[in-house]
Amino acid sequence: MEEINALFHGFAVALTLQNVMYMFLGTILGVLIGVLPGLGGANGVAILLPLTFSMNPVSAIIMLSCIYWGALFGGAITSILFNIPGEPWSVATTFDGFPMAQKGQPGEALTAAFTSSFVGAFIAVLMITFLAPMVAKFALQFGPAEFFAVQLLTFCSFVGMSKEPPFKTIASMMIGFALASVGMDSITGQLRLTFGSEELMRGFDFLIAVIGLFGLGEILLTMEEGLAFKGTEAKINAKVVLQTWAKLPAYWATYIRGALIGCWMGVTPGGATPASFMSYGIAKKFAKNPAGFGKGELEGVVAPETAAHAAGTSALLPMLTLGIPGSPTAAVLLGGLLIWGLQPGPLLFVEKADFVWGLIASMYLGNIAGLIVVLTTVPYFAAILKIPFSIIAPVILVICAIGAYTVNNAQFDVYLMIVFGVLGYVFKKLSYPLAPMVLALVLGKMAEGSFRQALLTSQGDVSVFWENGLCGSITALAIILLISPLLGKVWGMIKGNKAAA
Amino acid sequence: MQDNHNNEGGFVSNKTMEIVTALIILFFGAVVMWDSYRIGAGWGSDGPESGSFPFYIGLLIIISSVVTIFNAVRESDKDEFVGKGEFGMVMAVLIPAIIYVIAIDFIGIYVASAIFITVFMVWQGKFSILKSLMVAIPVNVFFFFMFEVWFKIPLPKAWLEAQFGY
After folding, report:
1. pLDDT tens digit at each of 166 positions of chain B
2. Which of A30, A152, A448, B107 qualifies as a cystine partner to A67, CB 3.0-4.6 A?
3. How far apart are the CA of B165 and the nearest CA of chain A, in angstroms?
4. Which value does ipTM take for this structure?
5. End-to-end alpha-carbon separation of chain B, Å?
6. Neighbours of A308 (CB within 10 A)
7. Cβ contact (<8 Å) for A175 and B61?
8. Residue A401: which of B50, B101, B127 has the nearest Cβ?
């Protein structure tokens, strides 16, 4: 097994004392980010990214990805104890997690959530280990047309799968593309959409957008709700943990279903949030006691957490192998790789095998570190939420401002961050999804580049996108996904008519 | 990008807000198309011209916002976009935040942050000034050491903080 050898080599790369330290530091920071309102995985990583510039790339990406795992774990804490999902993908966890905490079983709920997260992530990492090299090898034959087709698939699946109105998804995405094209055109060197402004010549950095949209925007939303945290104490000890662990194997089928849904939704950029809802729904359908769901059923915590983490983790598979991130946080990690001069994509596996396998190995280790950290420190993190929001809000705003400044050392970016914050607030309230905008901002230049290269080779003939079988089937799949909401509607109408007749 | 909050002055319904936002997006799309057309959106001697990709992006922005406006007009979503009290809370963060980021330019980030945290805590949290300073100053001293000393990332200090000679 070639992969196993490579993986063990990766463990050797990742397991230095320094890296393990970064791993724990990253997880703790990540849980902190996940717990605090206004700081999430995506903008937490974005803010901390500049701090890692002085590290070597392997340590840096290990720390950043551990921040990501930590944030995934952290979301569960606030959902269960305070009924406040720290992250959108932990909304489904509140359904049964919070009732359990109220019934006096917060320890059980937390243990189940963390363990399920761990299992979900672990299965997803296993999948990455064996599937990623295959995908990368396959993608080595891709030309610009195929790459554009895959990107098209990514964006179309957003439209098809998101629960927001499709035209709002398209609008949000296209705004991202438009912003990505601001600045110098990398192919012809022409300035675009700068309107003579020197500040705009640098273009829009997606990290600024992430910090504004998810940071300030989230604070404005939280503020509106006039948050008063009323939560349960986090009582957790070894006995509760062991007792809960004894109960969990009974839900093996839920784990497998959750992990499969998560892996699928994570690779296709549907994301962790719909995966968690889907897994919850399916678990409820198959459960022996569906009436108990929503009132504090252990399985109702297991299902969404497994899927959310499997999705969050497997979002890194397309990021590493194709250079297409499956989630905003994966997009930020991709941005980090680009800054270190590592171009994610199939070639990364050939040219920087050390780095790739080190990262994959760190996913295993980081998740173990995460599980240890959260199980032992939950009460402290829960205590953070007792700090009044009037202290947390300004401090987080200061962190966002510093984070926005350090990306390019530009004051202009801090103003931009505020504008993005207002945009994020308004868009969130009108249910425009934000993730497509961020991904378009990240991938815009790349998508445009492969589109133009493909057209160049074909002398402007668009049929290049369905010329060969591979490219054509990806494009066809993309278009099917794009119009799937429409198909759903038509199908509903036909069914409705039949029922009426 | 347009700053939308000017349009929220009154207490608007979701429907109005929906239409106004979509109109702003529509305008943005038109600007993108116009500027792309200006630099050339056709097929040049060396392949697609610089403006061609953004030109169609702008077109899609316009189409999608037209559909959104159409949907918003047809549905009568009279729910209010934001209540009076809620709007006040949002402004209570947003306006100080805007003043704060402008202040960074003049008095440096550490002093501005300390003042911002103090003012916010006293005003919104009803903490005593002493207590607020006891949060604001240590937090900023920590940031100072973290950025300037440990990670060697200089943050904006303006003329005021530059006087301290770091």
Report:
1. 334 444 444 567 888 889 999 999 999 999 999 988 888 877 777 777 888 889 999 999 999 999 999 988 887 766 778 877 788 888 988 999 999 999 998 888 999 999 999 999 999 888 899 999 999 999 999 988 888 887 777 888 877 777 776 6
2. A30
3. 20
4. 0.89
5. 36
6. 39
7. yes
8. B101
